[in-house]
């Protein structure tokens, strides 16, 4: 595997290393069957795959949120900056600079939008002024949130909640962000914006990303490296540019075939079948 | 293409009928927030009608108004040519309107099959004594409805998870189960709130196939909210565009796509 | 051996009251065994079973212990007593509910296996009124008497009697129920403060007692006009109130304190031998003495049963006969080391309820002691007997019981 | 003024005071509910445990003496010292913090992200546990608690009102003290939960355990913190009620008096606990005063609940509770 | 190896809808029934009947009832004690008013009366939700207890305010009163339990059950897809109270024989039954049995071990019992929040996969 951010040829440090992990839910349901991946410092790594492939599970395994879902990592190891982090408290991991934006938003319903954002700064100890600055930054990223800052998050629309979740993560000044389906339910314009922000943060602040996405198209446009997950296994990986050119990826994840993009109206006359499945 | 009340014919030759549902000057406010401001549009028999707009525009709220969950401060809802009196959501459902939800609202404690069967509740009538003894009407009804449910399960290709508790399913399958539940009600009007969020291309195509098949085979009228422009433009016959509570466009996909206001407010640079 | 089951409640809401009773019961038989080698040469065995004052556990205890040849049950809970009355009767095992339980069980013609000597709640009500009469030179016409009671079957027991007595003596009765558990009694005591009844009677239990006494002290109600039933008159009820409780009165079935010969034996054979039940710190308290009395009455009945049937190994049925033939004389009491502890009485086939006598005791908060301030007073049979006849007749009719003793 | 009216006023005043006492218990519930969405049934038993511990420490009782004596055949009961009230209170606070830590360590930690009813049940389990523990530790006899709080008729109010109306009002000194303490407590708690970072984190935890974890809030810390504060509030309630009615088992039942207060004020509102307490206190006393005699008395227990229920029908989240978010 | 469902195919939806679709389970169920009805009555004695089996059977019925409301319909109720009291007092009034009628009818009618009362107290559930509702049901608990205590008509004006069950029979066999046979009371309760379980199972596997579960899992969505929440909730209150009422009637008439309302049907009863339901497993009929068995047997077992075997003082054992029960409840919730029923399910799943770990 290459520890190389696409585009540059310099060797970079591996920040997060997942080695051959297995995850079991409820003691009986085996979901990840040996997943390995590396997130280089300063890179955007995408984790792609269909529904139920195990993307969310992988991210939760990294951020140690599995426990609260009655799941556990039974094999393999997860190493962050050379330190085994499997047995850490999620809060300690956040202090180390790893934060997750969970799938399905998970806002604090009864808190106002602004309070939600401020909880993101919970682990920080660098004073009110700094926090205020970051708050303003988030508001410039998402002006809609500024308008709704005094409303309870539970009453904001789906997309607004997604912004809250994202903004909240940014408030912790993370070093690594685990992003689970950031584009879900967002208007196209906003998807671009969010990925623009990801790119900004990555390039200007050096934040590393591990990104689980269904929107392969966008994800591969912004990521440096990608892993494709199917039924709990990594079936393919490589630099994003290479993946984008891979015919299988093109066909099944980007919806392109030799003849170019198909209309969704035509789905009734054809059906994609993965070569490696049946 | 819109010609009077008798409907129109689409490009691919489907006949669209008369207006089934008409929203007239709907205004919905939550305290200071105006979620919907004086919006009118209609939905015709057999058509696929899309509602698009930026986040927080009021699309889901509009579906909630149709379902009777939100009661607008102003405006009227006309259904099948008659003004709809104030109704509870479950009464609306019994008129043949089914829907899916943006934040999946499945019954997490039940299996997929049971969830689909809940969609049939409006069709079941056995009394409590019969059910208690599991005799007569109760059992016959159960079997008959089970057949319908199984058909829908087959149709949506979720046979293999029939007995799985829905809580364990991945997001995409949940969306499909939700569709199954809505279809089980055999609705005349089907409302879909972002049915394809969080899916990859392959799954979206599956979903599109189901939607088209439903529309075709059962003649179900469909109103859907979606952010994937590819899907919206390909699938829908007419599109309503909302922006912060206001309607900024209404027409065929092509009309909407070239509307400058829509491009500014929602589409941004075109990239499909 | 002779088995005496002891349905204790050393836990639960009324533990503080259950502990001394249970300790005394165990200690007394311990002493009998050590001193006399048992009763009639057969050692006695106390079989403790924890009920926590809970009816279902009471049933479990009963069922678990009855097969061991248990001679007599003393449930110390009105609820459990009601439970056991039909069951034990059917199983031919006697019950002794001393100063609680079903009042009309006094009528032995209907209740063959239930004994509630020496006095019952209706006696208690009558004794309290008699005491008030004594204080007022026999005339309480127009006086106001309030009853503060636990709003349960137990608390409501004296109401009929007090109403009938009110007709007879012309006092005015006010009823003030307090709901379980009784931690908040502001309304009741504000009402008392406002209406200034001349006397307040109390049928309380558990925390309700202390709160009532505390509230009475708070509103500066004259304590000597406040009289509790014998379940509202233990050290537990007055000690937490401190000085304020000084002068509070309560009815008593036995004399308080440990100034009795039996204590010498208890000390010698039990306490000093390190065999005291529980923490061994309850001697001489009101409830400990009550437990002792229950134990001595049980032991006496067993001895009489042995005599009647001519066998030292008696069955519960024989025990019942012994109880029915119980005759506690002053001499016998003295012999047993209980001189001046209680009054003589005699049980008969018709009368299972003893002499219906009780005394009034008063609390001295400085010395932290109870002292009897009256002699033992006998209740007003004219009022009570008809009530008992009526209630037991209803029971007999409901359960188609034929009268005995004819 | 007519007598009846004077009595009614007196009853109302006493109702207010009683309400404050209920509110003291309700506060503990609110705190924990706010911080973790847990309906902590053990709050009443915590008050009992705190009061028992306080008395035990003051009197120099040997904890678990009964058990020790039974197992080892020893005869230990007292250390033979008496600890002054203030010191004993401080020590008890320490014990409550330890208790909070244990609850977190052995119970809450393992129940992250479970449904509210499961957590509720766990607190009932905890209540049983603590109930057994307090008795085993300190014995089940009734204890007198005296930390020097005044009790009984307030003579000044009695005299003043007597001079004014010809009828002296009865107000209990203990109630006055309770009111002052409750007011201070509420002010402090409101400030804490509304204006501090921990307060905000606490409310976040109540909404979504997982999300709270994901932003780096340490559930463990928050829980220890909140349970400690709740333990402190329980101690205050235990002192008040213990002074009033002695320290013994029934103290744990005051929880039942606090529940309608909680409903009425709203599970999530600290000021709500006070307002709810006042309304319940006055309501039940006035009802008993006006209609009690006609209905046969002892209406207070159920009346509080029915009153709260009626309120809820109109405001399902209680007077000041957070609105229940209903959205699809 | 031990537990297989492979090769056990269904060819119709009726068969697939059976309570025990797996043949092995079905046989085990028949075996349990046979033992319960044909073997135990011959072995039983007073102690087993009165101290263990009767409370178990009766609490199991109550637990089934509460499980319908809380486990299936998601409405937490703390009024079970009060509703049991309604069953008991209704039964008492019927028994004394119509002595010649069979006890069977009385008990069922008592259930019916309780169902009506349950519906009445279920009305606020339309607006009040979650713990607010739980606390609100306490209003029922306190009010009903107060009422039965207060109005002498309910206890036939008896001097003590207690009610005691007179002797009544079914087909000439005594069921209540002191002179009953252990096997008769046992069988009487067992018949009610079996009937309750079957009816509850039928109700919960069909339309009504799904309506309830829909309300439980997400009431708004349920309403939007066509469930009338008022009817769903009230029917759950009715069905639940029906069973709870039956159990209250049996509790009073067959098991205790005499009760005082505040003591026998106090708030502790409500909690006890709720415990059974949760420890057993919310939304599982089997769980109701398991929970009832667990909470009836555990204290007895602890007592036998502590007092009879180890010879410790009864009070220490009783305190330890509280501590242990409390700790066990917490431990159970930690190990398996979905109760004994789920534990059993997982065990079966493991057996099915055995000897492979996953
Ligand atoms: N709490 C759980 N208990 C049991 N099984 C679970 C649980 N959570 C997830 N699973 C199972 O694990 C598998 C992987 O789920 P996961 O959520 O990781 O997929 P995903 O790749 O994120 O899919 P999606 O794109 O739909 O979010 C799925 O088959 C799912 O059924
Ligand atoms: N019950 C409510 N109370 C208060 N505000 C609400 C409520 N429901 C919706 N809103 C507000 O109304 C606006 C429209 O919300 P709606 O959910 O309809 O948006 P949407 O168009 O569906 O957006 P999205 O694409 O993000 O789902 C939002 O700003 C939201 O915060
Ligand atoms: Mg996912
Ligand atoms: Mg929406």
From TrEMBL, chain A:
What PROSITE patterns has UniProt attached to this entry? Answer: ABC_TRANSPORTER_2 (PS50893)
- Which Gene3D superfamilies has this protein been placed in? P-loop containing nucleotide triphosphate hydrolases
* Record keywords, A-Z: Amino-acid transport, ATP-binding, Nucleotide-binding, Transport
Transport: is it a keyword of this entry? Answer: yes
| Positions of the ABC transporter domain | 16-256
* GO biological process per UniProt: L-amino acid transport
Report the protein name in the record: ABC transporter ATP-binding protein
Q: Which family does it belong to?
A: Belongs to the ABC transporter superfamily.
Could you tell me which species this protein originates from? Pukyongiella litopenaei
Keyword Transcription regulation tagged? no
Molecular-function annotations in GO: ATP binding; ATP hydrolysis activity; branched-chain amino acid transmembrane transporter activity
From TrEMBL, chain B:
Q: Name one GO molecular function term.
A: ATP binding
List, alphabetically, the GO terms of the cellular component aspect. plasma membrane
Keywords from the named record: ATP-binding, Nucleotide-binding, Transport
List the transmembrane segments: none
Which InterPro entries does the entry mention? AAA+_ATPase (IPR003593), ABC_AA/LPS_Transport (IPR051120), ABC_transporter-like_ATP-bd (IPR003439), BCA_ABC_TP_C (IPR032823), P-loop_NTPase (IPR027417)
Gene3D superfamilies, sorted: P-loop containing nucleotide triphosphate hydrolases
- In terms of domain of life, where is this protein from? Bacteria
Fetch the PROSITE patterns from UniProt. Answer: ABC_TRANSPORTER_2
The segment(s) forming the ABC transporter domain are 21-269
Report if keyword Ribosomal protein is assigned. Answer: no
PANTHER family for this protein: ABC TRANSPORTER ATP-BINDING PROTEIN, CONSERVED COMPONENT OF ABC TRANSPORTER FOR NATURAL AMINO ACIDS-RELATED
This chain's protein is named ABC transporter ATP-binding protein
Give the source species. Answer: Pukyongiella litopenaei
UniProtKB/TrEMBL annotation, chain D:
State which residue ranges cross the membrane. 6-31, 38-59, 79-99, 111-130, 176-196, 217-241, 261-282, 294-314
Membrane topology reported for the UniProt record: Multi-pass membrane protein
The entry's keywords: Amino-acid transport, Cell membrane, Membrane, Transmembrane, Transmembrane helix, Transport
GO CC aspect terms: plasma membrane
Gene Ontology molecular functions: transmembrane transporter activity
In terms of one coarse class, where is the protein primarily found?
Answer: membrane
Q: Where found in the cell?
A: Cell membrane
One family name in Pfam for this protein = BPD_transp_2
Lineage top rank: taxon: Bacteria
Q: Which CDD domains match?
A: TM_PBP1_LivH_like (cd06582)
Q: List, alphabetically, the InterPro entries matched.
A: ABC_transp_permease (IPR001851), BCAA_transport_permease (IPR052157)
For biological process, the GO terms are: amino acid transport
Question: Which family does the UniProt entry place this protein in?
Answer: Belongs to the binding-protein-dependent transport system permease family. LivHM subfamily.
- In its UniProt entry, what is this protein called? Branched-chain amino acid ABC transporter permease
- Organism field: Pukyongiella litopenaei
Automatic annotation (TrEMBL), chain E:
Alphabetized, the UniProt keywords read:
Cell membrane, Membrane, Transmembrane, Transmembrane helix
Q: Out of the domains of life, which is the source?
A: Bacteria
* Protein's membrane topology: Multi-pass membrane protein
Where in or outside the cell it occurs: the entry states: Cell membrane
What's a Gene Ontology MF term here? Answer: branched-chain amino acid transmembrane transporter activity
Q: Does the keyword Membrane apply?
A: yes
Mind telling me which InterPro entries this protein's record contains? ABC_transp_permease, LivM-like
Q: What is this protein called?
A: Branched-chain amino acid ABC transporter permease
Source organism of this protein record: Pukyongiella litopenaei
